[in-house]
């Protein structure tokens, strides 16, 4: 009798274990089916629904909605996969602790996905950044700077929300970050001064890459502008790195921003030159400048200006059309040669520094010394 009882007991337990196994296998199969359904939904969404939404956003007045959908494309793709895993695992008979942990992971992944989308939206190479650059006429460096600041803030906020989700003391962490930020600001005040100097330089735009600038301490061509420093190539080809904090506090002359370039010099002729010839030379030089293709037609002045110690000075004042140094010098070269031709044709000589010495008395012996 006991043998029959034991046999029936083990038989029933075997059936129960087999039923439990098949039940577990069934739930596992359904979980896998749920995950596959989300994968199929993802394909349907990005093949049909997402293009339809993008088409609608292209017809709206603002382009912001289009940029948002573009930035969230990859995060949405990941959301379908994470959602499929979450609901598939939720269907399985998990313990209360595992279920709580799964919920925390689910909310954490949602935070990460949202952060991912906004992080992509705030990128310096994103289409939104390119649009702001064109509409607001901003320098790429300033776009890059604010992009980095925005991304840092997005990541910090996401980390704080994640810490709150996982039951960390966020208030203590914020207080610690405040003290740490104060200490960092005091330790890096020079670096921060250079960064703010860079912002001033970029926003005011006193120069751009490729401009020829001059300050009391440096002169050359700007090669690179960053938030910490500006790199300038001097005319002797030395590369000089100038801190922005120092550069922002100096007067800056930008020769590349000139609309035209000035030429001013005195043409000194000899004192024996007759007035009518001086007048004739001045008129011919003025006609030369007025008809020269490289000279700006406005503000041409050629006048007999002053009596110098050894010359009669004719002021020659004009502007070249080109501000490029090589073209400017070529124009001056051509004009100077033609002025020499005018002087030669008019028989006028260029004066050179000289002094006349008058001796009131001359020694009787002709300046020879006496012998005692």
From TrEMBL:
It holds the Pfam family MS_channel_2nd. It comes from the Bacteria. Residues 263-350 form the Mechanosensitive ion channel MscS C-terminal domain. It is found in: Cell membrane. InterPro entries: LSM_dom_sf, MS_channel_1st, MS_channel_C, MscS_beta-dom_sf, MscS_channel_2nd, MscS_channel_C_sf, MscS_channel_TM-2. One of its GO terms (cellular component) is plasma membrane. It is a multi-pass membrane protein. Residues 191-257 form the Mechanosensitive ion channel MscS domain. One of its GO terms (biological process) is transmembrane transport. The chain crosses the membrane at residues 21-50, 76-93, 105-122, 142-163, 170-188. Belongs to the MscS (TC 1.A.23) family. This is MscS family membrane protein. The lineage of its organism: Bacteria, Bacillati, Bacillota, Clostridia, Eubacteriales.
């Amino acid at each position: 009798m006991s043998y029959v009882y034991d046999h029936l007991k083990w038989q029933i337990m075997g059936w129960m274990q087999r039923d439990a196994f098949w039940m577990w296998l069934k739930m596992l199969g359904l979980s896998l089916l749920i995950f596959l359904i989300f994968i199929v939904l993802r394909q349907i969404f990005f093949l049909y629904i997402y293009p339809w939404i993008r088409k609608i956003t292209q017809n709206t007045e603002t382009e912001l909605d289009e940029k948002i959908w573009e930035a969230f494309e990859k995060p949405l793709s990941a959301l379908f996969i994470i959602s499929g895993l979450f609901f598939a695992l939720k269907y399985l008979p998990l313990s209360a602790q595992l279920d709580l942990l799964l919920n925390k992971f689910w909310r954490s992944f949602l935070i990460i996905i949202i952060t991912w989308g906004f992080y992509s939206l705030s990128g310096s190479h994103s289409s939104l950044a390119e649009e702001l650059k064109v509409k607001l006429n901003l320098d790429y460096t300033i776009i890059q700077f604010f992009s980095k600041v925005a991304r840092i803030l997005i990541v910090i906020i996401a980390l704080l929300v994640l810490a709150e989700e996982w039951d960390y003391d966020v208030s203590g962490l914020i207080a610690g970050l405040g003290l740490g930020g104060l200490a960092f600001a005091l330790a890096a005040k020079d670096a921060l001064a250079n960064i703010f100097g860079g912002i001033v330089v970029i926003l005011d735009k006193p120069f751009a890459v490729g401009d020829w600038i001059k300050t009391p301490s440096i002169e050359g061509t700007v090669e690179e502008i960053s938030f910490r420093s500006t790199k300038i190539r001097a005319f002797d080809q030395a590369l000089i790195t100038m801190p922005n904090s120092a550069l922002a506090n100096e007067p800056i002359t930008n020769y590349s921003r000139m609309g035209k370039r000035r030429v001013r010099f005195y043409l000194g002729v000899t004192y024996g030159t007759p007035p009518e010839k001086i007048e004739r030379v001045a008129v011919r030089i003025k006609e030369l400048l007025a008809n020269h293709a490289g000279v700006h037609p406005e503000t041409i002045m050629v006048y007999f200006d002053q009596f110098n110690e050894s010359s009669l000075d004719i002021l020659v004042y004009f502007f070249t059309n080109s501000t490029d140094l090589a073209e400017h010098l070529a124009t001056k070269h051509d004009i100077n040669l033609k002025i020499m031709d005018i002087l030669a044709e008019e028989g006028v000589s260029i004066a050179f520094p000289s002094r006349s010495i008058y001796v009131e008395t001359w020694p009787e012996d002709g300046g020879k010394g006496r012998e005692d």
